[in-house]
Design goal:
- It is a single chain.
- The protein is 77% helix and 0% strand.
- The relative contact order is 0.16.
- It has helices at 2-19, 27-39, 47-82, 94-113, 122-147, 153-177, 180-190, 199-217, 220-226, 230-235, 240-262, 268-280, 285-307, 318-342.
- Helix 5 (122-147) packs antiparallel against helix 6.
- The chain is mainly α.
Length: 344
């Protein structure tokens, strides 16, 4: 029943995302525009409204759904493998690796090539996406190699945090040495946005995520066993080191793809798993994994809607909105958990 309510909520949020923005479009015209490929035309709906729906709002809504689901699942995987409620998708420095890859491409392009990457349009956006994926995967491969060398999760966690600090330090040096225009382009990328993906890029992004998310669900059984602790999981026949490596790889790839297309989106991966546990009151990943994906999609749609609310010139940075929405959610969940523990 709760899953059904979540699905209905996501559908309702998609509709609201299509209706509301700096330009309000009547629901009747939205329906005509969405049905126009079937009916052969959008009737009286203006061409401007059609462009707003097809080229802006619908791609943003679809991007928010799959990005939110991917980050939420990644956060759940990190919290499970480290058994740490504060673990998130960026805990191992993978998001910082993406940022470092983009920094090398964006901040050095003007200085070396003489042409700022921000002036190259689609070519520049494609280069940033590729750089983000390469940076994230490079850090992830380093983390996987380190995970085979160290035994404790805490040690791996600390190493991941140190990698993140190192990446940020290098980015700081690159900012200092780069032209103002390139620094501005990098800062805008770092704010995160669901509107950056459109057209064929959006279709490719959604298709990739629709493959990765079901693959992540295949790790449900090992994740349930990891909750029991390494010793019990090993006694039940689980290869703990291999399972931990697979979960980290799955989480890292999800973060890499989302960061490449949308920029670093913070807080969703940390807050949503707690929200899903509070709603469904279970630790069984067979239920928790799809619940977390649905909650992540819904929360991302809410954040996208707030970022485009009427009255704002343009759109607010998504990271600002995710923090504003996610922080009260996680605080409320933790306070409620505390009350349950003390019997209030």
């Amino acid at each position: 029943m709760k899953v059904f309510i979540l699905v209905i909520s996501i559908v309702a949020l998609v509709i609201v995302n299509l209706l509301i923005g700096s330009v309000n479009i009547p629901i009747a015209d939205v329906c005509k525009i969405l049905l126009s490929p079937l009916s052969g035309g959008a009737g009286e709906a203006s061409e401007i409204w059609q462009n707003i729906i097809w080229k802006s709002r619908l791609p943003q809504a679809l991007t928010a759904i799959v990005a939110g689901a991917g980050l939420a699942v990644s956060g759940l995987q990190m919290q499970t493998v480290f058994r740490n409620p504060l673990a998130g998708p960026s805990v191992l420095g993978i998001s910082n690796g993406s940022a470092l890859g983009v920094a090398f491409v964006v901040l050095l392009s003007g200085r070396i090539g003489g042409v700022a990457l921000s002036r190259l349009g689609y070519l520049g956006d494609a280069a940033m996406s590729v750089a983000a994926i390469i940076g994230a995967l490079a850090v992830m491969m380093l983390i996987v190699w380190i995970s085979q060398k160290v035994k404790g999760n805490v040690t791996l966690l600390i190493i991941g945090v140190m990698i993140g600090y190192l990446a940020n330090a290098i980015i700081g040096v690159l900012k200092f040495l780069s032209p103002e225009e390139d620094v501005k382009a990098f800062v805008v990328w770092g704010l995160g946005s669901f509107s950056r993906v459109s057209g064929d890029e959006m279709i490719l992004f959604v298709a990739i995520m629709c493959i990765l998310l079901p693959l992540a669900c295949l790790l449900v059984k090992p994740m349930n066993l990891l909750l029991l602790g390494d010793r019990y999981a090993s006694n039940l026949g689980l290869n703990v080191k291999q399972a931990r490596m697979l979960v980290i790889i799955s989480s890292g790839i999800l973060v890499a793809i989302v960061t490449a297309y949308c920029g670093p989106i913070m807080f969703i991966g940390l807050a949503v798993p707690h929200l899903a546990r509070a709603i469904f009151r279970t630790s069984d990943h067979r239920m928790l994994m799809p619940a977390t994906a649905l909650c992540g999609a819904a929360l991302a749609l809410v954040c996208n809607l707030i970022a485009r609310m009427p009255g704002f010139e343009g759109a607010l940075p998504v990271n600002s909105v995710t923090a504003l929405v996610g922080a009260p959610v996680i605080a409320a969940v933790l306070f409620r958990k505390r009350k349950d523990e003390v019997g209030i």
